Amino acid sequence: MTPTRRLRRPWFRALAGVLVACAVLAGCGEGDTTDDGRQRMTFLNILPIESLSYAPELIADTRGFFAARGLEVRFEATQGSAPAIQTLLAGSAEISRIGDIETMIAAGNRQAPLVGIGEVIHRGTIRVISANGDPITQPAQLRGKLIGTPSEGGTSSITLDLLAASAGVPPAEVRRQVVGLAPGVFDLLTAGRVDGYMVSLDTAVLLQRTRPQAVVLDPNQSITAGSQIYATSAQTTRDPAEQDKLRRYLAAIDDAVRFIVADEATGFAGTMAAIGGKYQVPALRDPETARLALAAYVDSYTAGESLTGISPQRWQQTYGEIVGVGQLPAGLDPNRWLDTTLAPAAPS
């Protein structure tokens, strides 16, 4: 996704939020119910939907799990999590999937009435790439290093803060450089222009297959933060009709995740066939890379207490980590930003 210039004027930011909301409203102005009685709802994807990160959504669509739950779900792309949050709060869409870090900062620092209702990616999907000539294999080795990030600030940069802090390294002692997301970033590493850089799980899997000198550091070994949660507005959670749609959405995602987990036994043949039959997902061009990425996602799906529920204990730990790097004030109750009643219960 092409980075966009940061909007600095408050009125320009407000206008951008209105335009995003209007675009979503235009897509949703078809009535609340389809001819066959299914309820329409909008999911805001903060990255292109054609990604294995959204495998649960894509399988829920292509395998009919949304339809079986009485839903017709429209996918709407936004330019990152900030406009997605604005659109949710405007009441122009029902649900999005964003990071736990962004959710807490929006709710805790800006008092946004944002609520986490479910979670499907229970482990962070950001990785740190370095080269085997000067590998970064533990957080303490970040001290004094120059690390490339996709953008200034944001989730990757805060994750880097948290990772460094886990080893007692002050975030200020880790230098940063914006390097974007282009495939050629690895060449900056081999040329010695950066010591490492942050990538998504999919990219890390691809690099491990195509660049033998690549070394991958998984932040999940050191920090709790990094999960991806389903978020909505507090107002939406108070509406009984909207509650019903959210429950059905999360139930369909639960069904989809169970399908993907079971399909690991076939090498994800059913998953890749279903997604590839409708969506042009770049990772599927290399089936082996796709299988490895899906296996890593399954590890994340199954790392929680339930497939789609949020653990209040993990949520509290994440809040503590974010407070520790100065991104949130201490003394708040992060459980106020959760509604754990909408996700399916874990099997007894």
What does this structure look like?
The N and C termini lie far apart (41 Å). Helix content is 41%, strand content 16%. The chain has 13 helices and ten strands. It is an alpha/beta fold. The longest helix is centred in the C-terminal third of the chain and has 24 residues, at 240-263. It comes from Actinomycetospora aeridis. Residues 54-263 form the SsuA/THI5-like domain. This is ABC transporter substrate-binding protein. Residues 1-26 form the signal peptide.
Task: Summarize the SSE layout with pairings.
Layout: H1 10-28, E1 39-45, H2 55-62, H3 65-68, E2 71-77, H4 81-89, E3 95-99, H5 100-109, E4 114-121, E5 126-131, E6 146-149, H6 154-165, E7 175-178, H7 185-190, E8 196-200, H8 201-210, E9 214-217, E10 228-233, H9 234-237, H10 240-263, H11 269-276, H12 287-301, H13 312-324
Parallel strand pairs: 1-2, 1-3, 6-7, 6-8
Antiparallel strand pairs: 3-10, 4-10, 5-8, 5-9
Helix pairs in contact: 1-4, 2-10, 8-12
Signal peptide: 1-26
Keywords: Signal
Organism: Actinomycetospora aeridis
Indicate the percent of residues in helices: 40-55%
Specify the structural class: alpha/beta
**Morphology call:** globular
Largest sheet: 5 strands, mixed
Radius of gyration: 20 Å
Total of DSSP H or I helical runs spanning 4+ residues = 13
What is the string of SSEs from the N terminus onward?
HEHHEHEHEEEHEHEHEEHHHHH
**N-to-C span:** 41 Å
Low-confidence stretches: 1-16, 18-29
**Which band does the percent of strand residues land in?**
15-25%
Biggest sheet: strand arrangement: 2-1-3-10-4
Mean pLDDT: 90
Pfam families: NMT1
Keywords: Signal
Protein name: ABC transporter substrate-binding protein
